[in-house]
Design goal:
The complex is a heterodimer. Chain A is mainly α. Chain A has helices at about 1-10, 15-35, 50-70, 70-75, 80-95, 115-130, 140-160, 165-170, 175-180, 185-205, 205-225, 230-250, 260-280, 285-310, 310-320, 330-345, 355-360, 370-405, 410-430, 450-470; strands spanning about 100, 105-110, 110-115. Chain A folds into two domains: about 1-185 and about 325-470, no CATH class; about 200-320, no CATH class. Chain A starts with a helix and ends with a helix. By secondary structure, chain B is α+β, with helices and mostly antiparallel strands. In chain B, a hairpin with a 4-residue loop joins β11 (about 255-260) and β12. Classes of the chains: A mainly alpha, B alpha+beta. The interface of A and B includes residues 180 and 430 of A.
Chain lengths: ~475, ~625
Amino acid sequence: MTRRSNKIFKWIDWPTVLLYLALMIMGWLNIYAAVFSEDHMSIFDISQRYGMQLIWILTAILIAIVILSIDARFFNIFANYLYFIILLILVLVLLFGVEVNASKSWIQLGSFRIQPAEFAKFTTALAVAKIMSVYGFRLNKFSSYAKVGMVILVPVLLIILQKDIGTTMVFSAFIWVLYREGMPGWVLIFFVFLVGLFILVLLFNKLTILAGLLILSLILFALISRKYRDTLRFSFAIFGLSVLLFGISEFFDLNISPYKLLLIPIGIGVPFALFYAFRHKLSSVLYIIFFFIITSVFSFSVDYIFNNVLASHHRERVNDMLGIESDPLGWGYNVNQSKIAIGSGGLTGKGFLNGTQTKYNFVPEQSTDFIFCTVGEEWGFVGSFVVIALFVFLLLRLIMIAERQRESFARIYGYGVVAILFFHVGVNIGMTIGLFPVIGIPLPFFSYGGSSLWSFTILLFILLKFDSSRMD
Amino acid sequence: MSQNVSTDKRNIFSTVIILVFIIILVRLFTLQVVDHSYKLSASNNVLRQITQYPARGLIFDRNGELLVYNQATYDLMVIPRQVQTFDTTELITILGITREQFDASLLEAKQHSTFKPSILLKQLSAEDYAVLQEKLFKYPGFYVQPRTLRAYPRSIASHLLGYVGEVDDRIIREQPYYRMGDYIGISGLERSYEVELRGKKGVNVFVVDVHNRIKGSYADGKYDTTAILGKNLTCTIDADLQEYGERLMQNKIGSIVALEPGSGEVLAMITSPNYDPNLLVGRPRTANYRVLEQDTLKPLFNRALMALYPPGSTFKVVNALIGLQEGVVRPQTRYYCDGAYRVGRGVGCHSHPSPTDLIQSIQVSCNTYYCNVFRNIIDKFGAGGTEKGFTVWKNHVESIGYGKKLNIDQPNELAGITPSIEFYDRYFRKGKWNSLTIISLAIGQGELGTTPLQMANLATSIANRGFYYTPHLVKSIEGEPEIEPRFSLKHYTTIDSVWYNYIVEGMDLAVNGEPGSGSTARIAAIPGVTVCGKTGTSQNPHGKDHSVFIAFAPKYDPQIAIAVYVENAGFGATWAAPIASLMIEKYLTGTVKRTWLEERMLDAILLDRHDKKK
């Protein structure tokens, strides 16, 4: 018995395990503080969320031990099977699922509810690793991207259908993995740019976006070609013409939208720029025109689909999830409450269970998505710093672990783990302090909830298992 | 080489991660240590949003008299999560409810949401509110939300004004503007002009301390939105005329609709029996509604827009118009009548001078004449042309405003019934019916269902000699330059204007003919005013005939067109004609001089006849 358990824990990366345990226990204490009520003082009271969370933690540890005792090769061999099983379950959720908070992503099992989308994260990470670790696979041709893209997009599609936008966005983290495995850097930058643009399009009107893209392209051109004078002339020509057209339209009361008035000079400007590019043999201009057209079409289609194709209540839901409605009763109110709670914590916090903000009002997902509020209020900047530091240590440690794998399968999986955890931690904390729109995703190991805790545990411990058996 | 690339990328990962968290830490440092604004209010305070409900728009009659206004009331709200232990006995004493009611409401509030406010008790009186206000500090989590209730100074026009009520789940789902506990117009003008009347809610975010006292506005009102007042609405109703009509219809079942021909404005729209609009307001509403709902005389049923009656003889003018337009009858055409139309099953008539020309046929309301006219129309295209003739007839009927909604600005208007070829094909089998089998239509019986509004609209189109405006109840909305353009659109019928003159002459004679000439509605004559009218006595399966009358006045430059239905009351001339005549006199001259007639109408109780016949 002893020998066997020795074998399980042999070569295990103890710093990671300690960080894992520390985060889980801190999360538990904060959940206790968040939903604390004087009627149920005991932290072990399982009628309350903190009592339940203890059960989730204990079962999570059990799951971790089970994973460590499975042969590492199992995950490699069965990666695809696991992937398809979860896909099947996701389809079943769509058919028989239970709706909670407007997303139909739960399956009811007796008195428990589980959220299969959470488990799609590790199965997709495994499947991505599997497909990319095939001998001879290289990210240098379209078919390779198509294969990986399929593996990622199928669960994404199913989760979108469940209206769980938060979890869907987590899958964008896999772009990091592709980057690590050979995707050119500019694709990553362009992807990040498109994501940003997507949010900006929903926030601002399309005229602002188009003008912004135009100015950005002009600046890029000036910086790359160093032809400042030509750039200036060209800019004057385009903007001068639009101002002129605008004046004419106003004077004659034509009621043409400024957006269309800006399109006319652009329509003239693009062929001119093409001509210019060929005459001066500047390939950079071609790239910039290409960039401008792609991003403009992208922003226009996002705008169009959003405003014309989606029904109004879908639009509101997306707006709500992206946190765009400037409604103090809605998201703005939550973020404000969250900021007040965190801000009122000060340098050292109000102390355990002394958070007044958390006791009374508000932030509806206090123990789940907004658990960081409690940390900020009761433990102050110092506490927040410690929590963030622990997460940074964990992430850096995991990068180190991923890099020291001999098999590319394990390494790629490791980067998947890093990317998913990083996305979760960054976005979750970012949204509680108003740096990121509110999307409902939990803080790993911290937030209340069995499904998420189990899925993060599985995600992490499969990597630790790979790591501990790398010497075999 | 490859080793270097991967080391580079590894460093990029680490750098990005560290950078992102540095940004987060900087932000946290600003929030928690540098910026003190979050701490100022936070230490022991909570935020509370108080919705500012704008006063709902008032409703005036066409002369500026107030019909609907608002009364202040107070809802007691609770946020279950903020509730602390308190003296329940004292609170329920102030509120005047039992412990069970209180516990049930609180439980319901908790189930709705623990952190969002719910209504604990609706519509506290100003007195209860005054007492409660002083003690409210003892009850953290409770606060009072001012609201308004509708009130009606004259207790008239309940159906057309409509009432407001709380939104239900379906409305909240479909229209996100509304939240639990909000009010919405449910019927009548309140519903048709909901958006204009309601205005726009505002929100004030206050900082409240643990003792439940408001400490001030949060963030200098940055998250506040101002409420926009509801717009006042002037409706086309003449309140005095409406009230008079309601009095005349007391103890009778039926409806009166009076329109202004030159605009389509509804001057009065009475359905009887009706109810006092003040009954459907406030806390007693549910109980009162239930009582009204179970009343066998159906006071909640808006007969003016929803009752489908056969038009009876008033419909003869429609057949006359179609006959003239189709050239199958000329004004000079005379038909002999010996007291019945003796073809087929036959249609009886009453005794009157005979033969008559077209104008006289309206004056004396000859059934035989219209059986001839109707058959001429349907059989115009000869043998086998029944369907074609019928289609021609039906198209004219629909152009006059039957068998379709007139689209008045009221919910629940019915389209009425006009028969279709398909219906007769089913009923008699195809090819097995002809002008004789459907002869009842000649005298406005049979497969016809028309609302009182449609009959008043017929009177309007005759008064206008060939066109009508969509009847409407809104005259103007405060702050809006004009009402919907569709209300100023003329709808022409398919009958040429010239033919109307003969009908008008007939209707003039029906009221103002010499004694002994057979005029059917002489009782409707008003000294000094030329009233044109047509009686109807409509057979129906429910009992005694309905008494019907349509009229307009004066003959030239008409100011009012009216239709009156009195259910199961007998001849049109006995009840509907005098009532219409009194309404016209009241509207045109301001007073009623024929007090003997007025008294007879006011005193008549025509409810029991309905029952006896059954």
